Amino acid sequence: MKIRCAGGRGGAVAAWTLAAFAGLTAFANAHAAAPIIFNTPHFESPVRGGPDDIVFLGGAGFKGSDQVVYQEMREGDRNAHPAAVPTQSTMELGTATVIKVGDPPYSLTILLPKVFAADRSYRLWVVNAASEWSQPFFLNDPRPLWVSPANVYASRDYARLGRRIRVVGRNLISAGALRIRLRGPQTYTMSASTGDEYVAEASLPDRIAPGLYNISVAQTGTAWTDVPDQRLNVLPDPAAPPRFELGDPRFGSCGPNDDADDSACLEKAIDTARQAGGGIIELAAGTWMFDRDAGFVLPPNVSLEGAGAEKTTVHRRGSVNGPLLLLEGNNMLSKLGFTDGQRFTRFEDSRPVVQLGHRWDDPGVASGKLPGVVRDVVITDTRFRRVGMAVKDAGLPIERLIVTHNDFGGYARGLELPGASHSSRTLYRIDDAVIRWNRFVPGSFIDIPNGQGVIATGMGASRRVDFSSNTADGTSTEALQDPKDPPGWRAAFFWNMNDSIEMMLLANNHISCSGDKAGDGEAVAFDANNTTYGYQQAVDVMASDPNSVTLRGELQSAPAAWAGGNDSYYIGHWVEVLAGPGMGQTRRIQRYRANPGAFQVSPAWDVVPVPGQTKIILGRQFWQTYVVHNEINQATPPCRKGNPNGPKGGEITMWASSADSVIAGNRQFDTSGLGFTQGYSVHTPSCPTCGTRAAVQVALEIRENVVQGEYDWGSSCSLSGIHGTFGASPTPEAPPPIVSFGVQITHNVIEHSDGLGGGAIDLVPTWHGGPEPIRYPLIDNLIAAHNTIRDVDGPSPREACHYVQRGRIGIRIAGGADVAGTVLYGNSCEKVGMELADGGNSTTRVCGGVTRGSCECRVGAKAD
């Protein structure tokens, strides 16, 4: 096997044999500091690797003479490295090959040998020429991160979730059976009965002693690894609550199916339950009518229960656009069917059935007389049909929301939880939520001129949210106001950023026809709407230590309505290192003082930023977000491909900053593919129309996805495949840092689909490349390896949307010096017009002796 280093346009070519590295055991005597690897679990550290895989390492102090040693982990192993560099490689012990050192040397790219095992845990080291060994880093070791649900009962089922626990993280499936351990008032050990790399699930014991429990996981024969920063809360089994029948004569002469207003009876029943300290109000089978405009407030511990979603109907006839039910917390809605007598024609009139809490700007919330956080709401086994919106937030933080086994059909939204941009008491959050086994069907809202329409769910924050096994069925017409209204979605599942999105699992969902309504038609959208930044641009480091950093410049003020003050608003935001030593690290802000901004971060830095050399931005991001094993269909049938705003639908898109996130194992049919953006913009006198924003991708993995077909193969306006766009504002006062570090596109299958420039894997500028005439390396060390590209051939598409595409290409890298240090290896092209168009800078193409079917190693690869 050989390495070919190609420099893109005008790059020199050199070749040498990989085997020459494997047997090196002698080192130069020159003194050098040991290399430093990002090795803090969950924070930009390498995660997994299999035979013949390319692995990216961030850190510092790398040189071309470095070697990488691996050793299989065993229970009881010490962290001590082997006595010497091995001279041969086996499954248990050996060396990986250094492919390239970054420029500047803040990264190392390595190739694992074919004897390396994907289902075994390894400890690795980088060894320099002076025989100095780095601290160990790890691959394939279990990395539990959080647990769902956060609460369970001692013996009863909690919120219709079943008595099961789900541990979410990385590398949770292996050759050895995975065990889950609870340690608290007692110790319990369970075997994971189901699971994959991201989720290990087990049945709980029939009874658990109440209390708080630490959670750990272990493979057979390895040590236990704890879930950090979270404990499972086992609650005592609750006493049976009192029950109140809405038809009870003491509440009035109310009953179903009589077309009379039942509002007064419900108000009395709610008040009676409140005075009793809580209870369940039962609605018998039949249709109950509610005409009162003001709606109803459910106080804590008061719940509503029907005889079944198909049996008990709650019908609203009032005219005011407020919620029917306002839930203050500790409420359950179950076995009910909600409908609305109002016909909706505008988004503004699409009133919700359920509102979670009082509005964030309610004076009672600000004074503390009303709850400032909405906790422990359960909505289950309930149906919403021809309502404006089903469930809406009020801008207050939400904790432990459980939404399961429901059927949503709202005119404009099913779940509308975007939050408020600011709150008078605390930032918006959605913590420890479970949204599983729900079905969403589209309503009639469509706004073609503005590219808007019905969305299944919108959420503006996340911290430990399990969003799994839901269906967004865009083929359904059952919630349309008129059978002639077009079905489909404007988007299915949409996230904005009124807080960071952290530890979010989006798994095993099914989405159809998200491009049949209007707009961009995303199936899964991660958007930067409402994000905030601490500085107008990337700023210099003035001082640092292992746990903090002080930044130059004036910290921006918090939003005007924020009452917490500048000493707390940016807590929970992230600092991202985008230039200089430590490049590629992100850390969460724990506390700070302003002007100059001195920030304590967690966890500690692996590479401490260096004053005068390191640059940082401060903002929100998607962190440890897993988009895995979802199925998305935009094919005809079952969809119409009827998007009036253009051939767009079914895309998974990362349109905001992310770190340590994964898009893996998804299947897309005739969609707009999988897109991620990388960009930087600063509002300056030289560019008064430029906004202040950044979309930075760090340690993003895109792998094992199948992208099959696109919306309209014959149109240049139809984009698909895996496409990364990039750009930076032309602002000489604020030259851009890198906006992408170590993105990995591996083991994907792309068939009959390509992007803006015609590449099945497409890196393409869509804006300026920074201020001219200098070219800036915006994308650094992207890896594309072991991807299979098929049937990307034939005539160029017709020109549309002002896009001109002149060919069909397997891998296309555009942008010149904007894209630096890309590594290509093991990519297969079958029936592809042009295998590679390499317009990047210092691209490394790793080639063996056989080039047949290779995208990057066949003769004829061209500069773009």
Q: Which stretches are poorly predicted, pLDDT < 50 over at least 5 residues?
A: 1-31
- Give the biggest beta sheet: 27 strands, mixed
How many E strands?
77
- Provide a count of the helices: 3
Share of residues in strands: 35-45%
What multimeric state do the chains show?
A: single chain
First-to-last CA distance: 27 Å
- Structural class of the secondary elements? mainly beta
Helix share of residues?
A: under 10%
Please tell me the total number of domains: 6
Q: How confident is the prediction overall: mean pLDDT?
A: 92
CA radius of gyration: 28 Å
Give the CA-based shape: globular
Verbal overview:
By secondary structure, this protein is an all-beta fold. The longest helix is centred in the N-terminal third of the chain and has 13 residues, at 263-275. It has a 27-stranded mixed beta sheet that branches. The chain has a 25-stranded mixed beta sheet that branches. It is built from 3 helices and 77 strands. It is globular, with a radius of gyration of 28 Å. Helices cover 3% and strands 41% of the residues. The chain folds into 6 domains: 11-139, Immunoglobulin-like; 143-235, Immunoglobulin-like, CATH 2.60.40.10; 243-380, no CATH class; 429-531 and 622-672, no CATH class; 539-619; 679-864, no CATH class. Residues 1-31 have low confidence and may be disordered.
